[in-house]
């Protein structure tokens, strides 16, 4: 599907595809686009996103403006495609580079990286419908408060697991400790959690060092606009 350009589309009711860079939150992207539209139309325009990307993550972010924001739930239900790089042998308190990184300790003999066939076997075990527990450092609301805020306050709480579906996982490259994959998943899937679960099954631990969203439903990153920082 073609992107509707900020420059070329005069309508206030748009679907805007953004290639989000690292280092900015999804809310930060929304704020930038909102300011840009205010300059174009000389008044405030409603802008919302259809599913966040963590600050360290990059790639496709769909924004809706004006009356299109009413359709946000339709976009939230779409499946997604990601490319991700996992670092084996370590864990992170947040599942990504922003957390506290710790070397993984195991009862297995150290300095024996998993073989490619072992990784393929573990990855294949995640295909299909599975139960996944979202990370505590997430935007999920617990009793009206964001989970990541509770986690930062060191509050004790549990997040219920949910059924998600992994349609496909492909190994793109493996050079221990780095494992690069491409995965096609249902809405509601946390790739940080998938990485951690893969690390647990491999008995190596793992966290994400990079994450890039390539597709949301039929919307493709190749049609997205670069965000001007």
Helix content: 10-25%
Radius of gyration from the CA trace?
19 Å
Are there runs of 5+ residues with pLDDT below 50, and where? 1-8
Fourth CATH level, the homologous superfamily of the largest domain:
Pseudouridine synthase
CATH level-1 class of the largest domain: Alpha Beta
Number of structural units classed as domains: 2
Q: What is the total tally of β strands?
A: 14
- Treating each run of at least 4 consecutive H or I residues as one helix, how many helices? 5
Care to describe what's here?
The protein is α+β, with helices and mostly antiparallel strands and 229 residues long. The chain has 2 domains: 15-77 and 217-226, 2-Layer Sandwich (Alpha-Beta Plaits); 80-216, Pseudouridine synthase, CATH 3.30.2350.10. It has 5 helices and 14 strands. The protein has helices at residues 26-41, 72-76, 116-124, 147-152, 191-202; strands at 15-20, 47-49, 58-65, 80-88, 90-92, 101-103, 128-132, 141-142, 145-146, 162-175, 178-185, 206-216, 219-220, 225-226. Strands 1, 2, 3, 4, 7, 10, 11, 12, 13 and 14 form a 10-stranded mixed beta sheet that branches. The chain has a two-stranded antiparallel sheet with strand order 5-6. A two-stranded antiparallel ribbon has the order 8-9. The longest helix has 16 residues, at 26-41. It is globular and about 60 Å long. The model is unreliable at 1-8 (pLDDT under 50).
Sum up the structure in keywords.
5 helices, two-stranded antiparallel ribbon, 2 domains, Alpha-Beta Plaits, single chain, alpha+beta, Pseudouridine synthase, globular, 21% helix, 229 residues
């Amino acid at each position: 599907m073609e992107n509707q350009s900020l420059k070329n589309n005069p309508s206030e009711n748009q679907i805007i595809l953004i290639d989000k860079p690292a280092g900015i939150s999804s809310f930060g992207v929304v704020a930038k686009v909102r300011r840009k539209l205010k300059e174009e139309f000389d008044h405030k325009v409603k802008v919302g996103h259809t599913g966040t990307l963590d600050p360290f993550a990059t790639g496709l972010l769909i924004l809706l403006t004006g009356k299109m924001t009413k359709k946000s739930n339709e976009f939230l239900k779409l499946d997604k495609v990601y490319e991700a790089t996992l670092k084996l042998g370590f864990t992170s308190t947040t599942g990504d580079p922003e957390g506290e990184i710790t070397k993984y300790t195991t009862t297995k003999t150290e300095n024996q990286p998993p073989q490619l066939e072992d990784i393929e076997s573990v990855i294949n075990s995640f295909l299909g419908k599975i139960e996944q527990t979202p990370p505590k450092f997430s935007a999920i609301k617990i009793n009206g408060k964001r989970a990541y805020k509770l986690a930062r306050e060191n509050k004790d709480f549990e997040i219920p697991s949910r059924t998600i579906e992994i349609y496909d996982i492909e190994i793109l490259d493996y050079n221990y400790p780095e494992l690069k994959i491409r995965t096609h998943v249902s809405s509601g899937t946390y790739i940080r959690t998938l990485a951690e679960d893969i690390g647990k099954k491999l008995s190596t631990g793992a966290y994400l060092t990079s994450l890039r969203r390539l597709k949301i439903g039929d919307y493709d990153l190749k049609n997205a606009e670069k965000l001007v920082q």
